[in-house]
Design brief:
GO biological process, one term: RNA methylation
Oligomer: single chain
Structural class: alpha/beta
Bound molecules: S-adenosylmethionine
CATH superfamily of one domain: Vaccinia Virus protein VP39
Largest sheet: 10 strands, mixed
Keywords: Methyltransferase, RNA-binding, S-adenosyl-L-methionine, Transferase
GO molecular function: RNA binding; RNA methyltransferase activity
Protein name: NOL1/NOP2/sun family
Family: Belongs to the class I-like SAM-binding methyltransferase superfamily. RsmB/NOP family.
């Protein structure tokens, strides 16, 4: 395999080839781009890269109506079913089509990452960094009326936004959402596990059984939240035990014993009863998301330093990405597929993470994404990996790698 030039900590400077972007990018960010060999000119494209929407399946007959409401043409993305490009200045959040759940705002590159996962009806799917949930919704739509979807995120308030989205688009039926650290999460898909535990369903002696979902919380839960709020910890990251904040009617939980559902997987159990498909859309510096970087004009460039560039955070981020990928792979069934993606354009957060992961996981087989032959992306630094470069793809920046789990 051709090896990418992986930095230890940072990538060599390309030598001051800085162009002025139309955004007043702060010196520290320009430095970050330079250290990672990235061209700041890409951030001047925010005004020309389209915004993308995805039509909820079955809404094709409403296109003319949606065009009239948004006052723009929906330009079909030929390489990505169900996706349409609209001018970047069009805001969809205030539209009825959006509020009524006929359209989603999701970048085309994100849509491609989901297609790469090749979700099939009946699959048990895990989204290990699910919030705020655009990809989760597309996964739920793709799954249809069989299988299950498990969404995990470490940030409770962000995962709560996923729950709102799922409910808005009526996609929560087969989904369960856990606030948990994705590097430690170890719960297997419930349907898959229960099939092997036939006879034990609903016969808990000391514990309790999941009733149908209700947003009303127990007294114990409310006490916990009250305590966290009092300590100013309402956005506290996940504790060691996963917290279930939503489950759908057909997620497989209703009628199951709580202790069975919260039973962590042991040894190689996931190889036979794990997830068929895993998405690790890892936390990253978001530098490839032009529209995200643009928002710092309003949030203040100072917070960019804190949220994106802090050296210690970046170093920890590389470890976090590797650990998320490693744990996602651990929870995958033999023969299953995993997609690792980030919206960073740096080599360190993409090819280097993939290379380090492959070097310690002989059962991980990096796969060619066949559909990508028609996509406006290029090969990443490691053959078979993909890079969406905003300048070429006219999408947000995204790195995508797909792995299959081989038998050991
Ligand atoms: C790039 S965003 C994911 C975007 C999401 N897939 C979507 O399409 O909307 C990364 C997410 O990872 C979450 N995250 C960060 N550290 C995590 C961890 N240790 N375990 C699980 N999630 C984590 C963040 O809270 C954030 O919501």
């Amino acid at each position: 395999m051709e090896e990418p030039d992986c930095p230890e900590g940072s990538v060599p400077d390309r030598g001051g080839e800085r162009r002025t972007a139309s955004l007043p990018l702060p010196a520290a960010f320009l430095e970050f781009l330079s250290e990672n060999g990235l061209d700041p000119a890409v951030y001047s494209m925010a005004a020309t890269i389209p915004r993308y929407i995805r039509l909820k399946p079955g809404m094709e007959s409403k296109i003319a109506e949606i065009e009239a409401e948004l006052k723009c043409a929906l330009d079909k993305v030929l390489w990505l079913p169900g996706f349409y490009a609209i001018p970047p200045e069009i805001q969809i959040a205030g539209s009825k089509a959006y509020q009524q759940g006929k359209i989603y705002g999701i970048d085309a590159a994100s849509g491609a990452a989901i297609l790469a996962l090749d979700v099939r009806p009946g699959n048990h799917v895990l989204d290990l960094c699910a919030a705020p949930g655009a990809k989760l919704c597309m996964l739920a739509d793709t799954l249809g009326t069989t299988g299950s979807l498990t969404g995990v995120d470490v940030a409770k308030h962000r995962l709560a936004a996923c729950r709102t989205m799922l409910q808005k688009y009526s996609l929560g039926d087969r989904t369960r959402l856990f606030v948990a650290d994705g590097t430690l999460f170890s719960l297997l898909p419930v349907n898959s596990r229960m099939q092997r535990m036939e006879g034990s369903i609903g016969v808990e002696e000391n514990g309790s059984i999941f009733p149908e979902w209700t947003s009303r919380r127990s007294w114990k839960d409310r006490q916990k939240t009250r305590k966290a709020n009092a300590n100013g910890q309402q956005h506290l990251l996940a504790a060691s035990e996963p917290e279930l904040i939503y489950y759908g009617k057909h997620s497989g939980l209703v009628g199951q014993c709580k202790s069975d559902v919260f039973c962590p997987s042991v040894d190689d159990e996931a190889c036979t009863s794990g997830y068929d498909k895993v998405l690790v859309d890892a936390e990253c510096t978001h530098d490839g998301s032009i529209k995200h970087i643009q928002k710092f004009e309003f949030w203040g460039w100072k917070s960019l330093d804190r949220r994106v560039l802090d050296a210690e955070r970046t170093e920890n981020l590389l470890q976090l990405q590797l650990h998320l990928l490693t744990n996602g792979f651990k929870l995958l069934k033999t023969g299953g597929s995993l997609v690792y993606s980030t919206c960073s354009l740096t080599v360190a957060q993409n090819e280097c993470v993939v290379q380090q992961f492959l070097s310690t996981h002989p059962s991980a087989d990096l796969q060619k994404i066949n559909l990508a032959d028609n996509w406006p992306c290029r090969s990443g630094g490691i053959p078979k990996t993909l890079r969406f470069d905003p300048a070429v793809s006219q999408t947000s920046g995204l790195f995508v790698a797909k792995f299959c789990k081989l038998p050991t």
